[in-house]
Here is the input.
Amino acid sequence: MAVGGDAPVSVQSMTTTKTSDVEATLQQIYALAAAGADIVRVTCNDAEAAEALAEIVPRSPVPIVADIHFQYRLALAAIEAGVHAVRVNPGNIRNPEHIRAVAHAARRAGIPIRVGVNAGSLDKDIYARFGGVTPEALVASALSEVSLLEEVGFKDIKISVKASSVPLMIAAYRLLAQRCDYPLHLGVTEAGPPPEGLVKSIAGIGTLLAEGIGDTIRLSLSADPTEEARAGRTLLESLGLRERTGVDLVACPSCGRAEIDVIELARMAREELKDRELPLQVAVMGCVVNGPGEAREADIGLAAGRSGAHLFIKGKVVRVLKVDQGSGDPYRRMVDELLAEAERLVKEGVEARLDAADESAARIAAAEAESLRVAERDPNRAVERALRVRAITTKGSQEPVL
Ligand code: SF4
Here is the structure.
């Protein structure tokens, strides 16, 4: 997959297996690709890992980047093994001759090099020159490494200047984007476990992407790597930078009006839908009074009523599911119905599914929503009760009411 220029912004992730364990590494690469990773980075930290790459690369469904830290010979070995790119850390490979040797090998192989600067392993001289880890120091480290590559005519370069501080990484990438035209790989390093790690990564990477900065991204989470691949993909889709291939689940936050446990229903729906290739926006709403209207833009959704759920397509109720909340697993049934209708919607299209709507659905739904509205205006049902009282008291005006 191309990175930079007109290519779509890509999602990267990294394996956590021992690279020397070929089967385990390939299994994780396949899982990452299925979760949305376009490119997978694999550590090449010893001779066994480099040899394993020769087996992994031809069997991988996505391009493989070898991550090199200290030994430039491992970069040469990984290139020989057929990787699609190498990542070198200028703070760790400090001998310019070694960097040039890697550039020559990469040029012969026709693959790019990512210069991956990391605030935590900034070159000591640069640290001293700038008086610490600053945006200018990160950019200077990257550009000095880039100049070594350029000296030997190597220009197929990508750059990252990652830091665990979100303001620092944002400032560094902004500066880097002003100083060069090379494709940029964005990331907040050591972001930590979700949700905090996710929030930090989205804040940093999302801010830059929204400004038009960045060509490829990695969310570094202390979690199952498929989570970071899925989150990266979702970030790009939510910014409109990649087409949606899977479900975009929207759910109301719930409130006092909710007729069900929205959080549980949304969790179940997410679990069921997350790996389906259904390019739909699916809504889970807690009440029939506001749900279908608020989620009018969704392709399909469920709104919970007192006696079940209203299944709607583009805001129009097409079926009322009678679900007894006290029996069996009512939420499972709601999710199953939602999934089945979503699949039909993708296969048959909106018009066909609206034509197939239950004739009585809209009427029943409107009546139920209205009765809930009335109940809300009169939560104690005092008006209804007063009418019944009046019916009794006025019945045969001559008879005494006991
Ligand atoms: S859809 Fe209904 S339950 Fe959900 S937030 Fe809106 S009003 Fe509340």
Q: What stands out?
A: Residues 330-348 form the longest helix (19 residues).
